[in-house]
Specification:
Four copies of one chain form a homotetramer.
Chain A: E1 19-20, H1 31-39, H2 51-54, H3 56-64, E2 69-73, H4 76-85, E3 92-97, H5 101-104, H6 109-114, E4 118-122, H7 131-139, E5 149-156, H8 167-180, E6 183-188, H9 191-198, H10 202-205, E7 213-216, E8 227-231, H11 237-246, H12 255-265, H13 269-287, E9 300-304, H14 307-315, E10 318-319, E11 321-324, E12 327-331, H15 338-349
Parallel strand pairs in A: 1-10, 3-4, 3-5, 5-6, 6-7
Antiparallel strand pairs in A: 2-8, 7-8, 9-12, 11-12
Helix pairs in contact in A: 1-12, 9-13, 13-15
Chain lengths: 351, 351, 351, 351
């Protein structure tokens, strides 16, 4: 879960300007993206026939060091659902974590796009799947027509609790997937944050580890309306191009989506932004050491806070989610002002 | 049909700058929209919880003079499909023209969003439905469980051939719909062009004439990525908000969609842009009088051209679609340079 | 169309016993089937694990002279829809005749089972598709993501108007299908009647002519509740077994379905029954010569009758459908009493 | 779960006739049903236009003491899925037990029929839902568009482990459902066994306790291929009649389905058969007292058995399922021979 639609508990009467830590979705758009939108603003071919859209395959193939098919798409939910629909028949299933975004925060998008496939839910600390949990779930199924059979695994990196799968951890799941004949999808709404933390090659975290399709997030990381679906098996893209149109996701002025993505790939803006968000979260984590629910490996901080403590922080202008009673979620954005981060760290330390 | 995906027959070697008349989707974004995007670029609440998104209902209620529910959406295809899904059960049908965009250019989006409802196809010159044709189609159905029964009618205004339904013409269909218990949807990808031509109140062309839901197009008319669904029966919106999320169309930074729409409503930019496009088309039509396949009532011109004539125009730098053999489609955009329009009119006159 | 759900215009006050010619669905069950049901009435393995169900593949493989996968199924509608779902993705289409049962009489079953695929409608006299009509339809489609692309052709043999495709006619369509990469389905609700007329090997009318899947009808021909899906590409069966379960069509006492089918294959009861129905229809056709709308090649007779003539026949106790104004449909069943056939022939001759 | 498709561990070489306790689906058909099929074997109107089908509403309205709409259907899976589709939109959810048949044994039929609705899984001993568990699940959901919202509850009576909900227990769930605006469905594959145990009026266990739709099972209880869907809100039936056709479940010779059901209602054959099965299970339970995993309240017995003990029973000719390691499921049928029951009781006692 990324807190989709959780109630925003800002004090509307806040006497001081609010300091927003409730979602990286709430952040602004980075200047490179704004500039790219302006630069793209001239007549061009419609849909994805323009030069920018047509260059995505090459740009991502270069980034990943292998031939990929890349499609822009308006949301991470659509990226995930279209990826899964490319891998799973309606009578099959996807294995994912019980707290995965696709299960808990997408209003049934996978079911809609796949035509009614099931999500089979496994457990794991910090919303992280381990091979053992996947194996146990798969082994519990009777292999006959009375039960839906899994055809794919979906993992989220960084996870919904801000944990990062290492290349080795992904590869272990990739091996399992291959052994069982399952496809492997990675929900990378915060893929940039994971790569920034790991310092690894994007390839090591994806296709070299057995990932077949990646939802590569840009919006939380400084984009406006464009995410990317990366198929490491380019053959999966052909039907997806039809499905994207059929879902109303083939924008008629698609060049403005491509422009955003290319602007963030250029000069590794995507990594720069993610590093900034991660560093802010790390700074807060340092101040909140024994309150951490999970290690902080990306840009999300889950803190144990009493109601009184949460209220005290809010009174100082900090906005964040009450995740569950006694736990707050704070998310740092690519553009989080350093002063806000300092202030929050200090305020937590002073609790 | 609006020519979705038709081959762009531009001469890539064109020695002179191309003059684009092949699609209003290819046009740029108007300055008011660009400015609004920049103005919206600060942190705010995610999804549609921001102030801009929350003001859409009021803005459109004011425009239409009645209480409506308004949702931003990324594409006309999604606007149409979500509107129809709000009106039609999976075992039912939509009556539309055989050349309607929803039938011919959306890759089955209505079938996807409705869960497999059928489109029942009627005929009519210029892709325009007349009550008689609808009645004849409805009367041909056996009213039993062996056939899908219609639950809605969908018309396109302006039509796929640039014809305009008047308020009276819509009302005649609205009456028929009410009498038969059918909902009425209007695909208004070029609604602005229709209103600009008619000079009527938007209300007269929609809810006062029996329309229950309108896909209100902004992208072809100067927007970037935002269309609107207008429900004149606001109760239809509740489920649609879930369906929009489920379809991956609830953008996480939705304020950038709302901003585009509000910028075009403000000061009637939507009408100004549409009038410009219409005027350009009218100018060309005047020069092409006896070649016109249909009266030019919006911003599209369908011309009879021999292959040699089409080649002659292309040699002069004009880009357009070969609609069917012997017929060309030329579309004028909100920002079509006057010089291009003059040049095209002259070139056609000189054929 | 087979007249699904058309109003039964029997005179309820008929002073003489009614003579039913309105549907072969209304006929009884042949004695071999009733005996087989009784013989199967002992405990056995559930679903399709019983010996009878397990023997279907072999029985049909022998009949068709090639290895097939055969599944019992409760209705022709389900047989058709499951066959098409095995061939067509949700974003694709099936080419069929505008009056095909799958289009006109199954309440959208193909759309339901395929997840919203489209039926693309071709024309042809007597609901019979010719290669030219299919080619013209296919050629009219733009091959891009804006339009659904066909993945299969479905033909009905005997057609909804009782015409029979010869092996050569099927092979011509099969060649076209192969050339265009389309699968070929045959709705054989009256396959038995077609084979009985043609006297050909079942193989010649199906897989040797390019058919990939056949809905093999038994119910209209003397069965009770069991039809068969025959996959000539046995690989198509694997997913269909899941889809059948998922659709609630995997009967828990499936042996009673298998028993019906095996009883009708045994000793060629299926051909005997079909020949009887065909002969009855031929007898009536002989008497009705210049009134025939179509040649009578199976067990259906379409007659031009004025309202007064229709009333006159009904007054004599004959029951049938008014197909469209001025046209009556009369269907002969496997158990149509000879006296009824004689009486009808005489009554028509006397009009 | 009812063990759908679990491996049948009969010894094929069994030197003595097998004694089948592995499924009531494996039982034969009771003589009243066979007689009714024979009696119905004459020409009649097709589909559900015949007199038998048309009398179902009245027959079940009499049984339940209120006006209901009743539809025959070929399987319990289809009965469940059609019932749920009448109550739940594609973007909504059904609350059920994690081991409910609709979740674990129907290959995703609810997802297929509802167009991708979710099953939300609650826990409870013996696959029995308690109001507290339902409340806790419902309360855990955020009520916004990011999560699917429940629209119905489904319970199974008798449960998948042979436990029976009393009228009061159902009413407690019915009250909860009404309070939360949820519909209530009962999977009554073994409804007869529950009523036979409770000795209550069928009305008390259903509509008087808040049930809106019941899947009323006949096949496990002596029928051949006919179950019934009972709508206590008859308005739910209208769309279901279309959905039934669309799913290929409107049998063309539907009178043979109606005949089975009417034969079992007549003279309370359904209760007589269920009482016999229950009594057999009770007899076995008496002998197996301290091995029982759950109280035996219907016709299923879940026993703790070591591998050696299970083998010992099988060596004596008893057939049953290994449910999970260390647990066997034994099911008694309506026609279980008394000698087999005695022998099994004795064999268990002698372990």
């Amino acid at each position: 879960m990324t807190g989709g639609g959780r109630v925003d508990l800002r004090a509307p009467w806040a006497p001081i300007p609010p300091m927003r830590f409730f979602s990286d979705n709430a952040a602004g758009v980075c200047p490179e993206v704004m500039a790219a939108l302006a630069a793209a603003n001239h007549p061009d071919t419609a849909y994805d026939g323009d030069a920018l859209s047509q260059s995505l395959d090459a740009a991502f193939s270069a980034l990943f060091g292998t031939e990929v098919a890349a499609l822009w798409i308006s949301s991470g939910t659509a990226a995930n659902a279209l990826s899964l629909a490319a891998m799973v028949q309606p009578h099959q299933a996807v294995i994912c974590h019980a707290e995965a975004h696709i299960q808990a925060d997408e209003c049934g998008a996978p079911e809609f796009y796949t035509g009614g496939a099931k999500l089979l839910l496994a457990q794991g600390a910090g919303a992280k799947l381990k091979p053992d949990a996947i194996e146990a779930l798969a082994a519990s199924l009777r292999q006959n027509v009375h039960q839906v059979q899994p055809a794919a695994i979906s993992i989220t990196n960084a996870t919904e609790y801000g944990l990062v799968y290492t290349p080795d951890e992904v590869a272990a799941i990739g091996d399992l997937a291959k052994r069982r004949g399952l496809a492997l999808h990675m929900d990378g709404a915060r893929f940039a944050n994971a790569v920034a933390t790991l310092g690894c090659a994007p390839a090591d975290l994806t296709w070299r580890a057995g990932v077949d399709a990646l939802s590569f997030g840009f919006v939380k990381n400084g984009g406006m309306t464009a995410e990317a679906i990366i198929f490491f098996r380019p053959d999966l893209a052909a039907a997806t191009r039809y499905r994207r149109k059929r879902a109303g996701h083939l924008l008629s002025k698609g060049r403005f989506a491509a422009a955003q993505i290319l602007a963030m790939l250029d000069g590794d803006v995507w990594l720069r932004n993610a590093r900034a968000a991660n560093a802010a979260a790390a700074h807060i984590a340092n101040a909140a050491h024994d309150r951490l629910l999970h290690p902080v490996e990306a840009n999300e901080v889950f803190l144990r806070l009493t109601g009184a403590e949460a209220a005290a922080l809010r009174a100082q202008g900090f906005e964040f989610y009450d995740w569950v009673p006694g736990v707050a979620r704070l998310v740092c954005s690519w553009d989080q002002p350093a002063a806000e981060v300092e202030a929050l760290a200090a305020a937590i330390g002073a609790l």
